[in-house]
Amino acid sequence: MPRAKSDKDRKIFVLDTSVILYAHNSIMNFAEHDVVIPITVLEELDQFKKGNDTKNFEAREFIRLLDKLSKDNMIHNWTPLNGKTRGNFRVLMNPENNINANIVFGEEKNDHKILNAALHLKETEKNRKVILVSKDINLRLKAKSLEINAEDYETGKIKNISELENTGRFVLDGIDQEMINQLYDKHHVEAKLILGTRKRKANAYYILKSEKNSVLAYFNAEENTLERVDKKLAYNIKPKNAEQTFALHAILNPRVKLVSIQGVAGTGKTLLALAGALEQRRDYKQIFLARPIVPLSNKDIGYLPGDIKSKLNPYMEPLWDNLKFIQNQFKESDKEYQKITELVNQEKLVIQPLAYIRGRSLSNIFFIVDEAQNLTPHEIKTIISRAGENTKIIFTGDIFQIDTPYLDSQSNGLSYLIDRVKDHPLYSHIKLEKGERSDLANLANDLL
Question: Which GO terms fall under molecular function for this chain's record (predicted)?
């Protein structure tokens, strides 16, 4: 954000509740410009302060931050934000305006009260630009219909989403046949002999092609070598294409502690992660399975009957479906079939609610987080920061298939993770391209 040349150039940003619930410290990220919090936002945050979800944590942390910043000042007056380069903030009570959003839209609701706050500032601060900041697209559209400037909260958003598409896997043509022969014969070759002066990314995967044939390879940054990658079985699940082979290699690689797998429905993300976890079950104390809960019709899971396990089961069915698919690769009399049942019964393989991760230390755990695109960046950070010794975390998802209303392909946690930790020696990312569920599923992905 460019700095204002004068006080007149300093803008006023009006924050919606959705911004606070996305990032409690968002108030500090508007440079030298001033920030206004409508009193309606505080009233809404009061409804979120109880609970274990990330949004409850964000609400509580923001209330504490506001209390710390205000100290002995009246929060309806302009109060300096911490730091010499920051502006001021104030809480705006419900004002009276010439234009009333409740009347314009024919309904009295909190969103319209927030719009009224922006309208009031626009009327009273005529020499300054007033901007409503919201992650609610519909509220931004309503604001623009009232000629109020409106923007999404941009801090932390991935600017060039297309760069994420090329992370982790590369195709190199025109490779010397002798180098490919060496990879087949010796399993590895010095990286510079093939990559030359190309930039080398830790744990990157390559499809190396000569005029005659090709080979799959992995860049081992620790040894500075390219290693041949072969298709391997994991609990009787065999990769069906190059990308799946790379993904399973990363899942099974003991050097890599953090893996993200991106791909549309049916590409095998969750299946490979589960198969890899089962293959390594002896190396970890427990296997945790989790996915964000995105309730239908904006209802919380509290309305469902039963204990927490019963409430979670409807949302976790896709994980159980994949587990059952792996189990059905064997006969009921096979020890591998029985082992999966035993792991579940002995709680060695468990569904773990993400809401209860905060504050825990997860040691000796293989942790699979499915549908990670529905997590916020803060939730991703919270999960990874819980990792103790000998813990491996796999995030799977599709950054273009968002089910949470205030996230998009640029601001979701999975995109944030891929962008921030790419090239780290503990991390590997694979994008699965081809659907392998069925021809019918591919038809839906391609044509519908």
Answer: ATP binding
Separation between Cα atoms, residue 373 and residue 297, nearest integer Å = 19
CA dist., res. 336 & res. 446, Å (int):
36
Parallel, antiparallel, or unpaired: how do β-strands 188-190 and 205-209 relate?
unpaired
CA atoms 151, 156, 158, 159: torsion sign: positive
pTM: 0.86
Mean pLDDT of 245-255: 97
Q: Phi/psi of residue 345, each to 5°?
A: -65, -35
In tens, the pLDDT along 360-402 reads 889 999 999 999 999 999 999 999 999 999 999 999 999 999 9
Q: Residue 270: name the closest of 246, 241, 291, 242 by CA.
A: 291
Cα(91)–Cα(43) distance, integer angstroms = 12
Q: Which domains does the chain have, with CATH numbers?
A: 7-151 (3.40.50.1010), 164-230 (2.30.130), 238-447 (3.40.50.300)
